Amino acid sequence: MAVDLGRYGIWRFAGGLSPELAAELEALGFGAVWIGGSPPGDLELAESLLDATSTLTVATGIVNMWTDDADTVARCYQRIAAKHPDRFLLGVGIGHPEAQQTYTRPYDKIVEYLDQLDAAGVPVEGRVLAALGPKVLRLSGERTAGAHPYLTTPEHTRQAREILGAGPLLAPEQKVVLDTDPERARAIGRPAVRYPYLMLVNYVKNLRRLGWSEEDIADGGSDRLIDALALHGDAETVAAGVTAHLDAGADHVNIQVLTEEGADPLPAYRELAKVLR
Fold it and tell me: What InterPro entries does this protein map onto (predicted)?
C-alpha cells in the first residue's frame, strides 16, 4: 500500500487532537495518528493535522457509514489526497447497532458503501475497514487495504491474520495505562472499556468468540479482561504488550493511551516513544 503507517501510531478521540499535538507525535517518531470515535466526514480535522506535519500519516478510526454519505466523504478524501499524497488513510465502518435506529443488514450496508467509494474514485489502497468478525475481516482484505480492529487482543490479531492472509494491512487498536499500580490502572482502564463497549453487542460477541466468559464480561469486566484490553505497567511492560500484536501478525498498532481525566497524555507518549524506537 502507498500509505506508510510505520509500526506504531497513536489513537485518540477527535476532541483530544490538535495540530500542535500531531507535530509533537511526529517528532517523537510515531508513524500515524488515528482520529478516533466517529470523526466528521468533512475530514477537516485530518487536513489540519496533515497541514501541521510533514511525514506523519493521519487515519480515521472510523468515519461512520450511517452518518456520512460516501459521495461527500469521497470528495473530501480527494481534496486531502491531492494536497497530501500518500499521507491519509480513510478508515470507514458501520459503528454499532445501538447507535442507529435505521441500522439494518450491516454487511449489505458496508458493501454498498464500498461500491459507492469505488464509483467516486477512492482507491482500495487508500481505505481500511473497521472489522472484528470473520466475514467483515475477509471483506476488508478483498475490498480495502485491510482491517482496523478495535478493542481486541493479540489472540484476535492472530486469528485476523489467518483470515486475511499475508497481504492486507492489519492495524489493531490497543488501550494502555502507564501505571505500575494495578488498582489505580484498572480504575482508569475499566471505565474506558465498560462504557460503552461492554454494553454493545458487536464487541461483546467478539469477546465471546475469543473465549471470554459471561463472568469476565459482566459487571464492568473482570480484572483479567480489563488487564488484557487496557494493558498497564511501566513503559517497557506496556511496549511488550503492544509488540505482541506485531508478533501475532499485525503490521501496525495504534495505541490509545488512557490517563486520569484531564491529565496531559504527552508524558506517556514520550515514555513509550523511547522504548518503542
Answer: Bact_Lucif_Oxidored, Lucif-like_OxRdatse_MSMEG_4141, Luciferase-like_dom, Luciferase-like_sf
> Which contiguous run of DSSP H or E holds residue 147?
strand 146-147
* Long-range contacts from 45-51, C-beta under 8 angstroms, 24+ separation: 45/14, 45/17, 46/80, 46/88, 47/79, 47/80, 47/83, 47/84, 48/19, 49/17, 49/19, 49/22, 50/80, 50/83, 50/84, 50/87, 50/88, 51/19, 51/84
pLDDT tops 70 at residue 256 = yes
Report all structural domains of the chain as residue ranges with CATH numbers, in order of start: 8-276 (3.20.20.30)
| pTM higher than the cut 0.90 | yes
- Give the C-alpha separation, 96 to 99, whole Å: 6
DSSP 172: -
**What cell does 67 get?**
452518518
Report yes or no: 149 and 133 within 8 Å, Cβ to Cβ: no
Q: List, in order, residues 6 or more apart from 102 with CB less than 8 Å away.
A: 66
Q: Which three cell numbers stand for residue 55?
A: 511525514
Candidates 62, 70, 40, 238; CA nearest to 146 is: 62
Closest alpha carbon to 128 in 22, 1, 43:
1
Hey, what's the cell of 75? Answer: 470528495
Query: Does residue 1 surpass a pLDDT of 90?
Result: no
CB atoms within 10 A of CB 130: 24
100 — phi, psi (to 5°)? -130, 120
